[in-house]
Amino acid sequence: MSSPLLPIDDINDYLLSTVGITFIILGTIGNLSNIILFTQRSLRTLSTCITYLLAASIANIIDIYSYVLLRALYGFNITPAYSSSIVCKLQLYLFYISFCTSSWFMVGCCADRYFSSSHNAILRRYSCMRTTFRMILFIIIFISLVYAHVFYCYDANQFNRPSLCFIRNNVCLILDTAYYFTFQCFGPPICMFIFGIGTFIHIRRGEQIRIEARNRANVNIIERLPIHIVKLRKNNRKILPMLIVQIILYIFCSLPLMFYKIYSTLQISIIRNNIPLPVENLYLSIAILFSFIDKIFSFYIYTLSSAYFRTELIRFLTQRCLRRRIVPEN
């Protein structure tokens, strides 16, 4: 007699295969489009934070093909990570690094906006390509070291767990949850919020300086301000809508996985686990796929939220079409 929970496994396989393939197609098109546009001179020279967005798009591509692809293959019962310890560890290690670095690159982008909008010349010095490259390198190295515990804590053939490629014991579960809350769930949003508030304060302060200068009718100050403030303010207005929408969506998409992490940690000693494994595995699959939404659809988010990004996209497509129409002379 078949188990009544078998249809849940079928639903999970169907979800992983259909949604996974859709995410791969849309995510590949979107993030490759981001990479192409962010390497264009008009966007690359707009602000140093574009480099962070470029790095985040590259990390998203790695995330798609190191994790989403394998999750999609699970839906077709192709499960190399379930039986191979090496594949299991490498898959999750690449997932954590690319997923986490993508989030912290967004933090770096917010920090760059904070420094560039400051009226303090010392702070504005940090908004430069040298600092940007150093921060990107630091984030990659630091996150790679932080998640080195994956090679010990995760393993294949973990029966009686939500997934066969899962955490080995409860100590590793607590450690993994602590890292998740620190470096993925709470760390990036809190830093984004702090730098966002700081940027808002800098912009408001710039407006107050303009008003005070205008009230004093000091033409010299009014003429000097646009050189180093008005240009930065215009650039902030072009980029900030993209960042704000991305941050809000990031926080929203992190909630299902956050709830699962809390539940899985509490069930060790406080909550008795009465939920069948197929149901828990289905929720875990949904939570993981949900957490990818902001990274899969980043290109479409930028297109909808930023008029400047749309203008650059149309300009790029127009130039490509014009080049194809040019017929070489014999």
From TrEMBL:
<feature type="domain" description="G-protein coupled receptors family 1 profile">
    <location>
        <begin position="30"/>
        <end position="302"/>
    </location>
</feature>
<feature type="transmembrane region" description="Helical">
    <location>
        <begin position="49"/>
        <end position="70"/>
    </location>
</feature>
<dbReference type="InterPro" id="IPR017452">
    <property type="entry name" value="GPCR_Rhodpsn_7TM"/>
</dbReference>
<dbReference type="GO" id="GO:0004930">
    <property type="term" value="F:G protein-coupled receptor activity"/>
</dbReference>
<dbReference type="InterPro" id="IPR000276">
    <property type="entry name" value="GPCR_Rhodpsn"/>
</dbReference>
<dbReference type="InterPro" id="IPR052954">
    <property type="entry name" value="GPCR-Ligand_Int"/>
</dbReference>
<feature type="transmembrane region" description="Helical">
    <location>
        <begin position="239"/>
        <end position="262"/>
    </location>
</feature>
<protein>
    <recommendedName>
        <fullName>G-protein coupled receptors family 1 profile domain-containing protein</fullName>
    </recommendedName>
</protein>
<feature type="transmembrane region" description="Helical">
    <location>
        <begin position="132"/>
        <end position="152"/>
    </location>
</feature>
<keyword id="KW-1133">Transmembrane helix</keyword>
<feature type="transmembrane region" description="Helical">
    <location>
        <begin position="90"/>
        <end position="111"/>
    </location>
</feature>
<dbReference type="Pfam" id="PF00001">
    <property type="entry name" value="7tm_1"/>
</dbReference>
<feature type="transmembrane region" description="Helical">
    <location>
        <begin position="282"/>
        <end position="302"/>
    </location>
</feature>
<feature type="transmembrane region" description="Helical">
    <location>
        <begin position="14"/>
        <end position="37"/>
    </location>
</feature>
<feature type="transmembrane region" description="Helical">
    <location>
        <begin position="178"/>
        <end position="201"/>
    </location>
</feature>
<dbReference type="GO" id="GO:0016020">
    <property type="term" value="C:membrane"/>
</dbReference>
<keyword id="KW-0812">Transmembrane</keyword>
<keyword id="KW-0472">Membrane</keyword>
